[in-house]
Amino acid sequence: MSLPIVLLPTGQGVGLFSLKQGLKYALEQQGYTVKLFNPLFDAELPAAEMEQYFRQNKVKDFFEHLLTIYDRLSQSADITLIDGIFIKEHNHNAFDWSNAYINLFNKTLIHTFNANVILIARQGYKNLKDLEIQLKLHQQQIPQDVLLGTIITKINAPLDTNGNNRFSLLDETLHEQAPHISIEDIASLSLFQTKQLSLLGVTHWQNELTYPRIVDVADRLNLKPLYPDFDRSRRIKVVTMCSRTIDHVADEFQAGTLIITAADRSDIILGATLAAKKGIKVGGLILTAYSLANERLIDFCMDAAKQMALPIFTTENKSMSTILKLADIDYSSIPKDDITRLNLLKSSIAECIDIHKIEARLTKMPVHKKMSPPAFRHYLIKRAMEVKKRIVLPEGLEPRTIEAAIFCTRRNIAECILLAKRNQVLEIAQKHGLSIPDGLSIIDPEDVKSQYIKPLVEIRKHKGMTEMMATDALEDNITLGTMMLQMNDVDGLVAGALNTTAHTLSPALKIIKTRPECSIVSSVFFMCLEDQVLVYGDCAVNPDPNAEQLAEIAIQSAKSAKAFGIEPKIAMISYSTGDSGHGVDVDKVKSATALVRQNKPELMIDGPLQYDAATTLSVARKKAPGSSVAGKATVLIFPDLNTGNTTYKAVQRSADVLSIGPVLQGLNKPVNDLSRGATVDDIIYTIAITAIQAAQTQH
Fold first, then answer.
1. Can you list the positions of beta strands (E) in 394-460?
2. What H or E segment, with its residue span, contains residue 59?
3. Cis peptide before 507 (omega within 30 of 0)
4. What does each C-alpha distance from 257 to 98, 298, 311, 421, 680 come to in angstroms?
5. I need a surface site. Which of 17, 22, 66, 419 has the fewest CB within 10 A?
6. In the prediction, which pLDDT does 89 show?
7. SS (H, E, C) 610-624
8. Is pLDDT at 628 greater than 70 in this prediction?
9. How far is Cα 507 from Cα 522, in angstroms, rounded to an integer?
10. Which residues contact 680 (CB under 8 A, 6 or more apart)?
């Protein structure tokens, strides 16, 4: 049975959608399964029919209908977050009838669902006194035994002249900044000081959370792309209208800037194209009154624009009308396919909520916590922040790596070190609209490599290494970073966004070497599926391990799973389950399973198992009845690299899941390889994992 919590807005504009997503994510980070329920939209009834329930005094019937839908939706959830309703200030909504019944609706909702309540209030234009009055007014209408507390949203949001929240991308200042209010100011309200109401969290306004993608702006303005294969992911941070000559607007060509200009302004079009050619990620270019364009000039610029994927759009509207339309867009709503922005929003809000205060009130009803993907990611970040390790990033000029290092530095996930010349890093950061924080270390390889020549010669002298050979080897940043790790100048190394697994791993095998109890290095991927995290091994290193090596991979992978909070239940994967098939490959898996049982009898393992028998309980009951692992496996060991790599990529792409890895196992010190298609998130989580591994190997 799911525990219902009603999120009750005190008015319009509290950011209920955003808050709901953030709270859901915060609860999932603690291992809860959370579902969302909107009584109006999930009721599966037309607005007119819902209205009749209330007008004809059939409220009880309506909520019985709601309960039927709720029970079906929340069946597999620990907690369900339910939308309360609020007075709508503008009569454009199909559910405006609810204004007349708002108190009855919310009161009946809370009572019928036997729900706990969290008040959601926006600071907005209100001063602290008015905010407290509003909270007290709503508090008095809710039974105190179900009121968990309140979350205050959007403090220090920009305001327009009427005191309403307003954010604009225009480079002219169209809004005023509200007087700064701190969390301490909010917490000092007598309502919270006297414990009449619990303050569960305060969310800050952040401009970064409102930056739309260029495609979102284009869709809202009904613009036509000049060519189809532009960079659809570029975010717009500021909009500027260029009506002056190029001499006066050259500084406008910056990463994230959307430039609006008349289609006959050849100088501006050329300037934007040249900026893109230099690597500056201009947000986009809108050409207004496009019938005035010089087609020969457009053709002249197209090759460079296409090469750099510069987004260019056209419209027959004039520049001023286009600007005015842009000013009216509400940037607070997030398209469902903008996963990057939605994830940033969720994690940002989750950080602002004291989830433990909520948990303390939920002890009446037992819920089952598990290692869900959000809980796993939260564990990684939290644990990495605790251990505070130095991680070297040899690919210091790779843009994704720079962005990940910036994030990790700002969040104190690790002390990151980029191996690169500082001026080159700053240039790349500027082109991508990034700023380097003070705590991010940038080391020029030329300044440090000489100190590692003699130690490298000493380590490799049995292979005939000379100082000249060592000097040449240290020209490679991965070798240099590996030596920094070997000499304890850093705690871990992450690379591979530009280099192959072999290139990343080779210096580690020669310099760091394997742990005494390990004969091979292997790898695992942490596959963050919808409702659980699975460990896949080995999908990156060993092409065709023999039975002994396969057994070692299983043991290493089980150890990795346990180290990261996942109870290891090992399935040895094959094309056959149990004794249903025969052949050399099946026999290898059988032998490996037997070796693990012999060497590590405490481990829960079964094999050979087909993938479906290992992961799906209904299949397991038929194919492997009585197995303690089948249908419940958390660690899946593949018989060879061909099977493992193919499976992980198929699952990753077809199910659109985050896969963290490959995480290397068996080395004396942590070195981790990235896929060359790694996202910024992949790199961030790999840095966190490396930091945690470093803490474990140093104990």
1. 415-419, 441-443
2. helix 59-73
3. no
4. 41, 20, 11, 27, 22
5. 17
6. 55
7. CHHHHHCHHHHHHHC
8. yes
9. 15
10. 400, 403, 404, 407
* Residue that has been written with the tokens 């809980």 in this structure: 375
Structure tokens at 606: 């079964």
Q: What per-residue confidence (pLDDT) applies to 179? A: 59
Q: What is the pLDDT of residues 469-479, one digit of tens each?
A: 999 999 999 99
Question: Helix (H, G, I), strand (E, B), or coil: what is residue 53?
Answer: helix
CB count, 10 Å around CB of 282?
27
Instruction: Return the closest-CA partner of residue 76 out of 532, 650, 658.
Output: 532
Looking at the predicted structure, is the pLDDT value of residue 175 above 50?
A: no
pLDDT of residue 569: 94
Helix (H, G, I), strand (E, B) or coil at 430: helix
**Residue whose token pair is 């900044």:** 177
pLDDT at 393 over 80: yes
Q: Which amino acid is at 334?
A: I
* Per-residue tokens: 535: 């460990």
Mean pLDDT computed over every residue of the chain: 86
* pLDDT score of 449: 92
DSSP code, position 450:
G
- Least confident window among 173-177, 222-226, 411-415, 684-688: 173-177
pLDDT band at residue 443 using 50, 70 and 90 as cut-offs: very high
Interior/surface letters 183-193, b for 16+ CB within 10 angstroms, e for the rest: eeebeebebbe
Residue 354 pLDDT > 90? no
Is the four-CA dihedral 438, 442, 447, 452 of positive or negative sign? positive
Q: What do you get for the CA distance between the two ends of the chain, in Å?
A: 43
Measured in residues, the chain has a length of: 699
- Largest Cα–Cα distance in the chain? 93
Q: Residue 385, Cα to own-chain centre: how many angstroms?
A: 17
How far is C-alpha 485 from the chain's CA centre? 29
* Dihedral of the alpha carbons of 47, 50, 56, 59, in degrees to the nearest 10: -150
DSSP string across 494-529: EE-SSS-HHHHHHHIIIII-B-TT-SS-EEEEEEE-
Q: For residue 686, which of 343, 481, 389 has the smallest C-alpha distance?
A: 389
Which residue would you say has higher pLDDT here, 481 or 45?
481
Looking up tokens 């939706």, which residue turns up? 73
Phi then psi for residue 152, to 5 deg, are: -100, 130
Element (H, E) at 276: helix 266-277
What is the rounded distance in angstroms from the CA atom of residue 574 to the CA atom of residue 583? 11
Residue keyed to tokens 């109401």? 197
d(CA 176, CA 161): 7
Is pLDDT above 50 for 547?
yes
Give the per-residue pLDDT at 395: 95
User: Can you say how many angstroms the Cα of residue 254 is from the centroid of all Cα atoms in its chain?
Assistant: 26
CA pair distance 158, 124, nearest whole angstrom: 8
Which pair of tokens denotes residue 8?
């009750």
Any idea what DSSP says for residue 334? -
